[in-house]
Amino acid sequence: MITTDRTGPYAYENTSVSTSIRSLPIFSAGSLYHNFAGCTHVIHAWPAPASLVYRTSKGWKPDDKFAERIFSQYLDKNLWSTPSGPPAPTPVPLIIVNSAVEAVMREFRGKVDTKEHDKIIRGNQREYKRWYLRRTYCDFFSMIPERFRRVLMSFQQRRWRVLQFLAICDESLDLYRSNPALFFLLANHPVFRQGNDIEAKAIARRLIRLPQRDILGWLDYPATESVRKIFAKIQPQAVTARLLQRLRDALANTRASDLLAHLPFIDRDVLRLVTTPQISQYLSPRLLGEILERPKHPDIYILCMGVHYAVQLVGNSSVPFAINSTQQLRAIYNRFVERIGMDLYDTPVVRLRKHPVIFPPPPFKGTPDIIPISDVIMLFREGQEMHHCVSRHASSIAWGEEYMYRVLAPVRATASIRRQGNNWLLDQVRGHCNAKLDADNIAEIGAGIFGTKPQLSTKLD
């Protein structure tokens, strides 16, 4: 038990530390208890998994999200053996506490230096907290039989749902051994097919006795033997709800099943590539096989997306229908690098994947010589032609915060206008390589955009 003695090796240093220690979980009578933020969370793991939360205003309610967080964050192999006793605390140096000394210190406006003392206490508390958490979660997870813990560990997410499914009937473990991805799919079937969570257990208990193809068909996947074999090849650690949803969309096209049918197994990288429509058009079984043989290809996804966006940027080019090797993929990407000046990891092409890319209509039509930049491709080309970073503004344009114009006359430039309340201001006007323009050209460009003398932002005042 953590002592509250302020002079002991685990003494509370301050309120925040003591609060964090008192909010640690408690394992008792087969259940895990968490008390914080005015709520009491209770999780019982086995043999009847249940998770509840108590709030004063609402009473007891089911709370699967909290249990999912605990299982995703704390269940790992390091918790399979109960740790020994608490760590030995670092000795705390003696602090002289004497009324006469304190009186002298107060008279000279001084105080006893406890910095080193407090630092050691905080370190002791951190070590004790780390040991306490490991022991508590180890005791809690040891309630689950080891063979089921191994099943949970093989998946990266939704472990609580998987545990509930394992507790339903013995056939669930047989399905895991023969087809882990289909097992995960059925365990989380309310995610893939709308239904009532209250009836989920009864539905799963009924479906698990059906042939695997019938289970796939019920979940709106193609009910074919080839798709069942594809699912059987998917590694458990590659499975996520989002990827399986994308796989369902991809399997509507026979190209995805053709790509996956001849692979010996399917990992997360391959699954991610095949289920991304912009990328799958360039893939071939030979390329995917090479990725599986040498799995450490962290930039393959970026390379493929880069090729896709580069094709959009410069139009159709000599990209083959199917790329057969990572070497060929890199060569194609490098040709685009030379053509449009992209860089592999610091390029607008890659950054644009993180931003909305649909631009609203321009607030002002401009003129034949001052043209609104109405889509991402135009913004891209403007940045490449003018040698500046205008493409960084893609997200703010998409959200309606500013707008860009391609200026051909009176001088070649790029102009930006920015929203301020209900009005638009001329924000920046720059030439090649962000060169500044004279005031007369700026005024003429602003008048061309707005139709009148523009109101300038503070940048142009």
Q: Could you outline the blueprint of secondary structure elements for this entry?
A:
Elements: H1 15-22, E1 26-28, E2 31-36, E3 39-44, E4 50-55, E5 59-62, H2 64-74, H3 99-107, H4 115-141, H5 146-154, H6 159-166, H7 171-178, H8 180-187, H9 189-192, H10 200-207, H11 212-218, H12 225-233, H13 241-250, H14 254-261, H15 268-274, H16 277-280, H17 285-293, H18 300-314, H19 326-340, H20 348-351, E6 370-372, H21 376-386, H22 394-398, E7 402-407, E8 413-420, E9 423-430, H23 439-450
Antiparallel strand pairs: 1-2, 2-3, 3-4, 4-5, 6-7, 7-8, 8-9
Helix pairs in contact: 5-6, 6-8, 7-8, 18-19
Short structural summary:
This protein has helices at 15-22, 64-74, 99-107, 115-141, 146-154, 159-166, 171-178, 180-187, 189-192, 200-207, 212-218, 225-233, 241-250, 254-261, 268-274, 277-280, 285-293, 300-314, 326-340, 348-351, 376-386, 394-398, 439-450; strands at 26-28, 31-36, 39-44, 50-55, 59-62, 370-372, 402-407, 413-420, 423-430. With 461 residues, the protein is of the alpha+beta class. Strand 7 and strand 8 (413-420) form a beta hairpin.
